[in-house]
Write a structure and sequence with these properties.
heterodimer, A: about 250 residues, alpha+beta, Ubiquitin-like (UB roll), Fumarate Reductase Iron-sulfur Protein, Chain B, domain 2, 2 domains, 9 helices, elongated, B: about 220 residues, mainly alpha, about 75% helix, about 0% strand, globular, binds protoporphyrin IX containing FE, binds iron/sulfur cluster, binds FE2/S2 (inorganic) cluster
Chain lengths: ~250, ~220
């Protein structure tokens, strides 16, 4: 049988990047616990439209946990209280009847607010553009096993590649550091023979861009790892440190 | 010049890490030598004779530099991180699980440690090594240093403060140890829990040894 709950929402509203924001309180009744968090926000927006009020702006796209567009800092956690899921996969059954839910945008100097709950994560694109690629034509799809890669390495690279670039790591970090994201992007390539060749250049360029864009210095608190919806491990940060320091000492 | 230790985040962290490990080395040696206090005045005086050798005198400015670099970088990085966090904080707080409580409070822990270091230096170093730099007229020499320590540590207020200090430092060291290796890049999934445990054991040994010295004098042992 369907269960429904009544909730109070405190949502950050901000008209634009320069405007001063504030929380607004909304009451929602009879929300199905089977609905997702974003569906709940859709219901709220429908209600606002019917009341001729301005809707709440938030990022989303695939709604199946793979694109990295959704964000939202919910009750003290990026992507909400559930483990290892994105906000779009978060369900209302994780909340209690009568609960007050605080919803905020990612907060970091690297991610300025565009409007309401939507932030500009273009900084991540700039970091990728700085070096998160392989700069040779790889031709057609090669035969499987033509290049031998150990299972361990392949698994590690795959784990790193699961990063969807959502920015929850930055949002969770008390230092506003983007190290987990950059570490994932450096690792997924550095672990494989095709990416290894440019590993030094890549680590240096991506870290330089990350620093330039105003992200903080990692102090290994591990908050990023515990909030990452894809469970990207901070062992990749150790690898990034290793790649970067090796590259700099070679210079 | 390898400028990356100034203008890159990982380079700055490298300095934090190396200076921290250097301080670890110092702390270990310092702890080991002071354990001789438990061996009575003659054992301690013998150790202190070593402390007046020129080699040790040369090490003083290097050690001081280690502290100054560690602290200046700590404050600099803290300030950068404070700015990187952005102007508006989270109304719903930060509830993310972290590797430890100490990990979130390294600067505060460090500053408390620093406060005590100042007290510690005025109590001992200023009366011993500093005086020898100044010509040695008022210096408390090796043969009197045991009494100096014993007198200070028999004061319950001083000893309790010292013991608090050791355990504040303990928190700093538990995160600092594995964090330093993570920063240098000598870490992976297998070694992270191991380094974390080694760090806790190491910090505990240091804190217990230091604490035992204070308890020894506090409970009236020693000459
Ligand atoms: C005997 C004294 C000390 C020892 C042995 C020590 C050791 C360490 C070590 C090993 C680290 C880890 C470096 C890394 O993460 O790469 C560290 C980090 C740090 N220390 Fe100290 N430290 C001492 C005193 C201080 C003092 C006086 C301060 C004063 C502010 C301080 C502030 C910090 C800060 C802010 C960090 C950065 C946190 C981090 O990156 O994990 N420390 N310390
Ligand atoms: S590392 Fe995790 S939290 Fe950070 S951007 Fe990638 S998926 Fe999101
Ligand atoms: S909307 Fe695509 S991951 Fe959430």
């Amino acid at each position: 049988m369907e269960k429904t709950i009544h909730i109070t929402l405190k949502i950050w509203r901000q008209k634009g990047p320069q405007a001063k924001g504030a929380f607004e309180t909304y009451q929602l009744n009879n929300i199905s616990t089977d609905s997702s968090f974003l569906e709940m926000l859709d219901i709220l927006n429908e209600k606002l439209i019917s009341e001729k009020k301005e809707t709440i702006v938030f990022d989303h796209d695939c709604r199946e946990g793979i694109c990295g567009m959704c964000s939202l800092y919910i009750n003290g956690h990026p992507h909400g209280p559930d483990e290892d899921v994105t906000t779009c996969q978060l369900h209302m059954r994780k909340f209690k009847d009568g609960e007050t839910i605080i919803v905020e945008p990612w907060r970091s100097r690297g991610f300025p607010v565009i409007k309401d709950l939507m932030v500009d994560r273009g900084a991540f694109d700039k970091i990728i553009q700085a070096g998160g690629f392989i700069s040779v034509t790889t031709g057609g799809v090669p035969d499987a096993n033509a290049i031998p890669i150990s299972k361990e390495k392949a698994d590690e690279a795959m784990d790193a590649a699961s990063c969807i670039g959502c920015g929850a790591c930055v949002a969770a970090c008390k230092n506003g550091s983007a190290m987990l994201f950059v570490a994932a992007k450096v690792s997924q390539l550095a672990l494989l023979p095709q990416g290894k060749i440019e590993a030094s250049r890549r680590a240096k360029a991506m870290v330089a861009k990350m620093d330039e864009l105003g992200f903080g210095n990692c102090t290994n608190t591990g908050a990023c790892e515990s909030e990452c919806p894809k469970n990207v491990s901070i062992s990749h940060i150790a690898r990034l440190n290793r790649e970067f320091l090796k590259a700099k000492l070679k210079d | 010049m390898k400028l990356f230790i100034i203008n890159s985040s990982i380079g700055r962290k490298l300095i934090m890490s190396l200076s921290g490990l250097f301080l670890f080395l110092f702390l270990t040696l310092h702890c080991f030598l002071n354990m001789f206090l438990l061996g009575g005045p003659s054992a301690y005086t013998a150790v202190n004779d070593i402390m007046e050798l020129p080699v040790v005198t040369i090490m003083v400015p290097i050690l001081a530099a280690g502290f100054v670099i560690h602290i200046l970088y700590a404050l600099w990085l803290y300030w950068q991180n404070y700015r990187a966090r952005g102007e508006v904080g989270y109304a719903s707080g930060k509830k993310s699980e972290t590797t430890s409580w100490a990990a979130r409070n390294m600067v505060i822990l460090g500053l408390v440690v620093l406060l005590f270091i100042v007290l510690h230096l005025t109590q001992f170093w200023a009366k011993m090594q500093l005086q020898s730099f100044l010509g040695g007229a008022n210096q408390v020499h090796a043969d009197q240093s045991y009494d100096l320590v014993a007198n200070q540590f028999r004061n319950p207020i001083v000893s309790v403060l010292y013991i608090i200090w050791y355990w504040v430092l303990w928190f700093h060291l538990t995160h600092g140890f594995w964090s330093a290796f993570q920063t240098i890049g000598i870490d992976n999934k297998k070694w992270q829990p191991r380094l974390q445990i080694i760090g806790i054991v190491y910090a505990t040994i240091l804190a217990v040894c230091f604490t035992s010295i204070n308890l020894y004098f506090l409970f009236g042992f020693g000459a």
